[in-house]
Each structure stands twice: as C-alpha cells, then as structure tokens.
Amino acid sequence: MALYHNPPMAYAQEPTTAPIEHRFNPYSDNGGSILAIAGSDFSVIAGDTRQSEGYNIQTRYARKVWQLTDKAVLATNGFAADGNNFVKRVKQRLEWYEHAHHKPMGLKSIARMIQTMLYGKRFFPYYVYNILGGIEEDGTGAVYSFDPVGSYEREACRAAGAAQSLIQPFLDNQIYFKNQQPEPGAAPFIPGNLPLGTVLSLVVDSFTSATERHIEVGDGMEIYVVMKRGRTTDDLLGDNKLAPGMTIEELPSLGESVGGVESEGEGQGGERTFLVRQALKRD
Amino acid sequence: MELNGGSVVAMIGKDCVAIASDLRLGNQAVGVASNFDKVFPVNDKLYYGLPGLATDVYTLKEHLRFRVNMYRMKEEREITPKTFTHLVSSTLYEKRFGPFFIEPVVAGLPTPTELDPHPKPFISTMDTIGCITTPKDFAVAGTAADKLYGVAEGLWEPDLEPEDLFETVSQTLLNAVDRDALSGWGAVVHIITQDKVITRTLRARMD
Amino acid sequence: MECSFGLTGKDYVLLCSDMSAGRSIIRMKSDENKIKTLGPHLAMAYGGEPGDTNNFAEYVERNMRLYHIRNHYPLLPEPASAWIRRTLAESIRSRHPYSVNLLLAGYDTTTTKPHLYWIDYLGTKAVVPYAAHGMGVYVSLSTMDKWWFNDMNKREGVEVLKKCVDEVKKRITINFNFNCILIDKDGIHHINIESEDPISEYEAAQPKDTVVEAPNPPLDVGVTA
C-alpha cells in the first residue's frame, strides 16, 4: 500500500485542508510524595509541600495532607487539582454525615466512603493516590491506602507518590522488619508497634532521603500526628523531642459538640492532632 | 535493561568496600536462571558489577578479562581501581553509537604505595556510554536502582566497619530487590578489605 | 509455535523438542528433527526463524566437526557453549543477525558431568539444571520446578521429562510430536518419550538401535606434520 500512498498523478496532489486537532489532556502529574505510618495508639501522616509540573516548580508550599475530623487525616498525591477537589468533596460528605447522624464519621467508614467516591468515577478517575491515617474506633492507629479507582487496604505503613519507589522498600525494612530476624530468644517483631519517636525519625529520614535523590520532592514537610484520646503527649511535646528546625502546633478540635452534649469525653477530651513542620534541604 | 533484569550496589566503608548483586536472569517476566552472577573479580582488591543486557554482560566481562590480562603482562603490576574505571569507560565509549546496554559499577581498594600510604576506598559507576561518576558514599545500578537509592540513602552512614558494611549493603540490596519484579532470585555480597575478601551468598525471597 | 526443553541428571542430560515445521498457523511437517548432534557427546535443540535455524545449526555442527578433526578431540560442552554464544552475540550486532534460540546439552567426558545451557538469539547464556524455550516455557518450567531434583537417575529424569510432555499436551492447544535424546558417557541415544514406559523400552533395546548418529571423525582424519 505504501506504493500508492502518494499517487504519481499530478492532479491528485491538490492541496487539502483539514482542521488541526488538539486533544485536551485533563490530567497532569504534580509530583511530591506522601507517607503514613500507624502506631499502637497514634498515627502519623506526612507529605512534602513542593508542587511541580515537569521541571517547573509551581509552588514550594502546597498542602497535600488534610485534617478531616478529630481522628482522621487524609493525604493526597498525584494530580493536585483532582486532589484538592476530592478533599473538598470528602469534607462535604463528612459534614452531611455529621448533620444527619449527630456524630462524626468513624475512620473505617471514611475509608469505605472514599472507596465508593473513587469508584464512582471509575471511568473518569480522580488521578490521585490517597492515604488515610488516624485513630480507629477501638483506639488503635490505622493507615488505609487507596489506588485512584478505590482499591483499598488497611496497613501498618504506606508511601505513595513520586518517591514511592525510594521510600516504600525502606519502610518495608524499618516498619515491617522485612529481611530482619530477631536475636535468638528475643521477642518477635510486630509491625505497627513502634514508639512515636522512632516513627517520627523514620518519617524525617524517608523525606530527607527522597529530597536528596528525587527532584520532585523537597521544600517543606508537614507531619500530622493523630493521638488516641488520653494518650500522653510527652514523647512529642517533651523537651528535646523534636529535631532542631522543627515547629509544632496543636490543631484545634473540629468536633462540634452537637446539642450541647460533650461527646463521650473521658475527662481528658478527645483525640488530639498535632502538626509538625520542617524545612527540607535546599541544595 | 528491562529484558533480563538485575541490579548491583556498591558502598564505601572504613578501609573497606562492598559490592553486591542479585542473581536473577530473566527473559522479560519469565525467570530463566537464579545463578547469574553479575559481579566479577579483577583481582583480590578490585571487583566490578555489570547489570544490564545479559549478552553484553558476558561479552564485556570477557573483553575486560582480556584487557586486564594484557595490562598485567605489559605493566607487570595490577591495575588500580581508577585505571580500571577508565578502561571500562573507554571500552563503553568505543561503542558510543551502538552501546553495550550495561551500567557498570566498580568497587576496589587501591594498594598502598610509598606516595600514597593510606589510599581511600574507591567506587565508581558509569552510564551505558561510559560517563564516570565517583561517589563518596554508594553507587547503584540496574532495574532496582531507584529502590536502591531510597534504601541506601536511609541506611548508609560513613566509616562502617566491614561487618557493619556487610549488613548495610545486604539489607539495602534485599529490601530493594524485593520491591522489584525484575531483580532478586538470590543475592551475593563481596566485602573487600586490605587483607581479605568476604563473599557471602544471601538467603533471599525466591519470588 | 515451538516447544523445547531439557534437563540434567546425575550423569546424563536429556533434550526434548517438538517436531513441527510450518508457517504461522499452518503445519507443513510433523516429523522435522530439530535436535542437531554436534559431536559424540554434544547436541542442541534449536528454534527460531525458519532458515536461520538450519543454517546456523549446520554452521555450528561443521565448526564443531572442524575442531574435532584439527585437534583429535571434540570441543567440551563449556567451551562449545562459549563459542556458540559468542557467534550469536557477534551476529546480533551485525547487519543480518541469526534469529535462533537453542538449548545446548552435553556430557563432559573429562569430569563425567552433564551440562545444559540456555542460549537465546541475543547471545544470552545461562548455565541451568533445566530449561525450556518457546511455548514450553509456560508449562514445563513450572513442572520442572516442582519435580526436578539433584542427581536424578535416568528413570527419574525421563519421568520428569514425560510429565513436561504430558503437561504440554494437556495445556497447550497445539498438537506436538516430541523427539527426545539422552546424552551420557555412551554417547547420544534416542528416547521414545511418547511411549508409556520410555526408560524400560530404552534399556531393553540394543544400544545400536537407539544410538543417534553423531559426527565423530576417525582419529586418522586430520592434518599430519
């Protein structure tokens, strides 16, 4: 057929016009990375704050991690516009739920809701990888990770985003103790039981490593720590618990006490969420 | 690279270097052999790894064996890690427009001389056409390179003693290749010190 | 639409290949021998681009024979594999590469050890205890993963090979006829892998009835001073 592609006859060479087609690509990738690690009575959800497109840095501070309720924090990564919009709609659904049921939605219910919301757009997906962290009904720290169309799983830890391939094997080793064996006679390793100090160090190490080797990761880091109600905060707020350059603030409770009744408080208030920030290496 | 799979990592320690690789040889997704070594000795102070296209692994290994033997006979001395790196580099650049699909990693301890009684441990790595990088910490290559970067960046620290370096390089390799479908199927580690080379085959996941 | 596999045992190596030849979905032959004997203790099962295959196999055969005539002893499996690999590795970067995949099987008479090499058209060489090319990869590799073990005797080895053949017949929709050889200290012999009990049949037969003719030049053929 190639032979006849351009017929040798001159009259067949008449100029033709055709409209130049432009196909709109509704998606983009905005880089960055997120991760979450569950503890026995806390959960840590972190993300960097760089937002980029290709080699262009759009901003050095864009949020990827969002407080949803007093016991749930959601990290989004992938296409930022979709991520922001998705969080907005999740928050809206949570508000509707609270009005309808006079209580905030539980963590595992949020997880299931996120699945249905993602799968609802199965054929025009939110191009977003989600990681949900927080405190479960039974008081344990939990991490749920999602793919863009809603497959999800509860895990002890998860990394996602541009530096997933750098961070996840490190977490496999340090959180799941993969390829490690306890000393003979020592207690077996149980994933998801590490102390908060260790977990924070691992999060910081993960992001400094990713910053070192990945151009899309850097600028700043936001680490959300959700603590079970009544848990001590000494290992976070105590002297010299944070590395130099870190700042910490406690986020005010989102819980609206419905009907003037303090929601089943045990004297010490509810779950507490802290936000730790740190700048990432600038070279 | 993605045809046969495979990865190599090298690290610097205190008066020692380590180089390690997986043992898989695949044909795309199908595993063919679990005894395919990618790290070869030049002498007892210098090793190099050749992850990439398996046919070129053999060809380059044999070619370098020939070149090093010729060097040894002509010069009547052993080749230094730095010279060897340049030998590999120029061998690769010779094929600039039809390259060997290999990203070599070299690891060695230079022999102390009168001019330099305390030589530093040496590692280097190259791209497929021989552009040299000489890192101060570690070098990675192969299909699990990005994973190796992440784990090595988290685990490596300066001045590790041989046994600690062995643990660091082994954990780095194993955890990285476990997240790579094209690497794994066993692993081998060489720790090079001034007086001996420790070679260990690791028990790894075989899936 | 090709299928070949091989395995090593304690003091022998087995090689098995289908016998079909054709183009795309059409089979023109079902009795084509695609195992080439390269020496008294060396053979290869080959497949790939029709034309390239036979040409390359004969090229290898003649070079092995030439080496034998010149040196009065055949090339051992290891150096033979290196030579074949190199030939293919040089070919792949030439203007007309051979597109031939092969399994090289040999018995090393000096060490009494069996050898099996998996070699593809790029010149990739793997030294393996058992291997497969073509469609055999998808069923017989896992069969051999499960049943193969170290130092199998001939009966055990043939049993495993038969399991592979059965698996191919069961799981692959194409009908294959199989051709099988065994190489040991006595040379190359044919095994009727399609029979119920190949090894008993083989042991009952006279050696001269199962022997596969292999190039083995007489010692007085050669260059004399």
TrEMBL record, chain A:
Note the Pfam families from the entry. Answer: Proteasome
Location in the cell reads: Cytoplasm; Nucleus
Coiled-coil intervals in this record? none
Region Disordered: start and end of each range?
Answer: 253-283
PROSITE patterns linked? PROTEASOME_BETA_1, PROTEASOME_BETA_2
Instruction: Describe its partners and assembly state.
Output: The 26S proteasome consists of a 20S proteasome core and two 19S regulatory subunits. The 20S proteasome core is composed of 28 subunits that are arranged in four stacked rings, resulting in a barrel-shaped structure. The two end rings are each formed by seven alpha subunits, and the two central rings are each formed by seven beta subunits. The catalytic chamber with the active sites is on the inside of the barrel.
Its name, as the record gives it, is: Proteasome subunit beta
Q: Which organism is it from?
A: Kwoniella dejecticola CBS 10117
Q: In the record, what lineage is assigned to the organism producing the protein?
A: Eukaryota, Fungi, Dikarya, Basidiomycota, Agaricomycotina
TrEMBL record, chain B:
Q: Per its UniProt record, what CDD domains does this chain match?
A: proteasome_beta_type_3 (cd03759)
Q: Which UniProt keywords apply?
A: Cytoplasm, Nucleus, Proteasome
On whether GTP-binding is a keyword of this UniProt record, the answer is: no
Which GO CC terms are listed, alphabetically? cytoplasm; nucleus; proteasome core complex, beta-subunit complex
Record-level GO BP terms:
proteasome-mediated ubiquitin-dependent protein catabolic process
Please give the PROSITE patterns that the UniProt record associates with this protein: PROTEASOME_BETA_1 (PS00854), PROTEASOME_BETA_2 (PS51476)
Q: Read off the Pfam families from this record.
A: Proteasome
- State the compartments where it is located: Cytoplasm; Nucleus
Where does this protein have coiled-coil stretches? none
Q: Which SUPFAM superfamilies match?
A: N-terminal nucleophile aminohydrolases (Ntn hydrolases)
> Record's superkingdom?
Eukaryota
- Quaternary state and partners of this protein? The 26S proteasome consists of a 20S proteasome core and two 19S regulatory subunits. The 20S proteasome core is composed of 28 subunits that are arranged in four stacked rings, resulting in a barrel-shaped structure. The two end rings are each formed by seven alpha subunits, and the two central rings are each formed by seven beta subunits. The catalytic chamber with the active sites is on the inside of the barrel. Component of the proteasome complex.
Q: What does this protein do?
A: Component of the proteasome, a multicatalytic proteinase complex which is characterized by its ability to cleave peptides with Arg, Phe, Tyr, Leu, and Glu adjacent to the leaving group at neutral or slightly basic pH. The proteasome has an ATP-dependent proteolytic activity.
Family from the record: Belongs to the peptidase T1B family.
This one is known as Proteasome subunit beta
Q: Which organism is it from?
A: Kwoniella dejecticola CBS 10117
TrEMBL record, chain C:
Tell me the Gene Ontology biological-process terms attached to this UniProt entry: proteasomal protein catabolic process
Lineage summary: Eukaryota, Fungi, Dikarya, Basidiomycota, Agaricomycotina
InterPro entries associated with the record: Ntn_hydrolases_N, Proteasome_alpha, Proteasome_beta2, Proteasome_bsu_CS, Proteasome_sua/b, Proteasome_suB-type
* CDD domains the UniProt entry points to: proteasome_beta_type_2
Q: Which family does it belong to?
A: Belongs to the peptidase T1B family.
The UniProt entry, under PANTHER family, shows: PROTEASOME SUBUNIT ALPHA/BETA
Q: Which UniProt keywords apply?
A: Cytoplasm, Nucleus, Proteasome
What organism is this sequence from? Kwoniella dejecticola CBS 10117
Q: What is its main location?
A: cytoplasm
Q: Does the keyword Nucleus apply?
A: yes
What is this protein identified as? Proteasome subunit beta
Relate the assembly described in the record: The 26S proteasome consists of a 20S proteasome core and two 19S regulatory subunits. The 20S proteasome core is composed of 28 subunits that are arranged in four stacked rings, resulting in a barrel-shaped structure. The two end rings are each formed by seven alpha subunits, and the two central rings are each formed by seven beta subunits. The catalytic chamber with the active sites is on the inside of the barrel.
- A GO-annotated cellular component: nucleus
Q: What SUPFAM superfamilies does UniProt report for this protein, alphabetically?
A: N-terminal nucleophile aminohydrolases (Ntn hydrolases)
Protein's job = Component of the proteasome, a multicatalytic proteinase complex which is characterized by its ability to cleave peptides with Arg, Phe, Tyr, Leu, and Glu adjacent to the leaving group at neutral or slightly basic pH. The proteasome has an ATP-dependent proteolytic activity.
Cellular location(s): Cytoplasm; Nucleus
